[in-house]
Amino acid sequence: MEVDLSFTAIDFETATANQNSACAIGLVVVEKGIIVEEFYSLIQPPQNQYMWQTTRVHGIKPRDTAQAPTFKDLFTDIKPLITNRIMVAHNELFDRNVLRKTMGYYNLPYESLGLSNLWECTFKIYQSNGFKPARLNACCDVMGIALNHHEALSDARACAQLFLKHRLEQDK
Q: Is the pLDDT of residue 1 over 50?
């Protein structure tokens, strides 16, 4: 079923507790309810520094990003996928702040993206629909969505699918 719904789902993994330390990005572009483009890249975080706690979550290590592009290097690829788009994330506050703070670190103008101050948040949507817990992996288990949790593209794709399923249910 085709839905007149267009948005970009985004997921970041970070190298440290600093929200400007993006080390991976996944983007899924949806046009009229259909996934039309996906983008994934490792990102070299500032000084290629990591905390063991974050590496334990996503498995990305300094050696994995030593030759990866910086966010500033990737920005020309990312910008057209997110500019003036409805943005969706499973924890929108986290991913929105990572984007904003990483762009700030590289002196890239966040305001030029034309994004809403609040994004669609599948965590909040599914939590308000009674999902307990409403973590991404738990929602995907219940909704039958494949997930390689904490791999940025898989997380972004799962988020896009959760949002589409929610909107399809709303439109019934």
A: no
